[in-house]
Design a protein that fits this description.
Layout: E1 2-6, H1 10-22, E2 26-30, H2 33-42, E3 47-51, E4 53-54, E5 57-58, H3 59-69, E6 74-80, H4 84-93, E7 97-101, H5 105-141, H6 153-165, E8 172-176, H7 182-191, E9 200-204, H8 210-218, H9 235-238, E10 243-247, H10 257-266, E11 268-269, E12 278-279, E13 283-288, H11 292-297, H12 303-309, E14 312-316, H13 323-340, H14 350-358, H15 364-378, H16 391-394, H17 414-428, H18 432-439, H19 443-452
Parallel strand pairs: 1-2, 1-3, 3-6, 6-7, 8-13, 8-14, 9-10, 10-13
Antiparallel strand pairs: 4-5, 11-12
Keywords: ATP-binding, DNA-binding, Nucleotide-binding, Phosphoprotein, Transcription, Transcription regulation
InterPro entries: AAA+_ATPase (IPR003593), AAA_lid_NorR (IPR058031), CheY-like_superfamily (IPR011006), Homeodomain-like_sf (IPR009057), P-loop_NTPase (IPR027417), Sig_transdc_resp-reg_receiver (IPR001789), Sigma_54_int (IPR002078), Sigma_54_int_dom_ATP-bd_1 (IPR025662)
Protein name: Sigma-54 dependent transcriptional regulator
Length: about 450
């Protein structure tokens, strides 16, 4: 626990600091109200010990200023026996508790235990508030919850492996293309673990520069870099006792990787610009769309960190390899969005279904969700037709003459792929010159190809 002692007597500050540090706490001191308020603005302290007599200052006024600055700050009042009635008044103004001078080590420990319990309750309240907001947002904006089962045997085996591992404290590495639902799966692992009532904190590794990412992860001290105007805690501190989810960890800069390795191995870390080693007990779940083994070979990812993360590893197959799941997900999304919009849409026509099955879905679930939301808005009939789907999906329905637009990697000849692509570009390009530019050839080559494929 980080504690601030506010007392105008140096002897009290010194003896109380020694007693608290002996109990394993981090302690700083202030001799008056203004310096205390300044330190509380600069850093986060879980508990403040405040003397009601600070020279000529009114301790009650300092208490009110502290609580005005941070209404959730725990403040324990130091008071002499003669001013217990004033201490009672202080608790009425919002003080957490009071401690009579002189106090014994046991009395101090009792206050600390009570403060620790109060801090846990504060964390729980914040967590519940965040959960309520997440649920409200999910109801308003998001998709239906994914069903964690699969018709694909390989995928189902991966899911079962993952959820068996949820009960252990081991690190988990989730591999898969972008949009396959890795973050949703990570949250489900947390919710099925013994940490379900503890924090689940997410860090997106590619979203920040190296300097900012390090600060977001581990926190920083005032002045440790340009713009660091106050001491700040990081996501590691926020996740203490729970789960830290590192999304797209393959993008983690090499400079930060040793610090993450230390957190995994030693369960400790330091804030930027600070020499104090802090303990932290978090479970790490990481996800990436990169081949981390290849990154190790390329020396862009530490081998020791890879092995520490790779205790339990699962791969989420892309949607194009899970056609039965694709249709089920599409129906779940359609039911969700049509219900939100107050529309009655009875599934997909055959052309709509075939369009879904033929598309490669490079964006996986994320792309499917957006496509179905669009279709639910634009559908003119009681079923989703191919033409209601986005152009990249709808364009892969049977073309003129009944020939299907090929899926890349399917059993099609090069000539068939070239002919089909050429026909589609000619169909929507404004002019032949535009078509040639799109295809990356000159008009003479385009003419020869049209003649070869009988498109004159």
């Amino acid at each position: 626990m980080d504690i601030l002692i506010v007392d105008d007597e140096q002897s009290i500050r010194l003896t109380t600091s020694l007693a608290l540090e002996a109990e394993g706490h981090y302690v700083e001191t202030a001799e008056d109200g203004p310096s205390a308020l300044r330190r509380l603005k600069e850093d986060d302290f879980q508990l403040v010990f405040l003397d009601l007599r600070l020279g000529d200052e009114d301790g009650l006024k300092v208490l009110q200023d502290i609580l005005k600055q941070n209404p959730r700050q725990l403040v324990t009042i130091f008071t002499a026996h003669a001013s217990v009635s004033t201490a009672v008044k202080a608790t009425q103004l919002g003080a957490f508790d009071y401690l009579e001078k002189p106090f014994t080590p046991d009395q101090l420990r009792a206050i600390l235990a009570k403060a620790h319990k109060a801090l846990q309750q504060q964390v729980e309240v914040v967590r519940l508030q965040e959960t309520v907001q997440e649920l409200k947002s999910e109801v308003k904006h998001n998709s239906p919850p994914l069903q964690f089962k699969s018709e694909d045997e390989r995928t189902q085996m991966e899911i079962e492996t993952l959820f068996r591992a949820a009960a252990s404290p081991a690190s988990v590495l989730i591999l898969g293309e972008s949009g396959t639902g890795k973050s949703v799966i990570a949250k489900e692992v947390h919710d099925r673990s013994h940490l379900r009532d503890k924090p689940f904190v997410t860090v997106s590794c590619p979203s920040l520069s190296k300097e900012l990412l390090e600060s977001v992860l581990f926190g920083h001290m005032k002045g440790s870099f340009t713009g660091a105007i106050k001491d700040t805690w990081g996501k590691v501190h926020a996740a203490d006792g729970g789960t830290l989810f590192l999304d797209e960890i393959g993008e983690l800069p090499m400079e930060i990787q040793p610090k993450l390795l230390r957190l995994l191995q030693e369960r400790e870390y330091e804030r930027l610009g600070e020499n104090k080693v802090r303990p932290c007990n978090v479970r790490i779940i990481a996800a990436t769309n990169r081949d981390l083994a290849a990154s190790v070979v390329a020396r862009t990812f530490r081998e020791d960190l890879f092995y520490r993360l790779n205790v339990i590893s699962v791969t989420v197959p892309p949607l194009r390899e899970r056609r039965a799941d694709l249709v089920r997900f599409a129906h779940d999304y359609l039911n969700f969005f049509s219900s939100q919009m107050g529309r009655k849409i009875d599934g997909f026509s055959e052309s709509g279904r075939q369009a879904l099955l033929r598309h490669a879905w490079p964006g996986n679930l994320r792309e499917l969700r957006n496509a179905i939301e669009r279709a639910a808005i634009l559908a003119r009939g009681s079923k989703i037709e191919a033409e209601d789907l986005p152009i990249p999906v709808a364009a892969e329905t049977p073309a003129a003459g009944g020939a299907a637009v090929p899926v890349i990697g399917g059993e099609y000849s090069i000539d068939h792929i070239e002919q089909t692509h050429l026909r589609e570009v000619l169909r929507w390009a404004p002019t032949l010159q535009d078509a040639a530019a799109i295809l990356g050839i000159d008009k003479a080559t385009l003419y020869r190809k049209r003649k070869r494929f009988g498109m004159d």
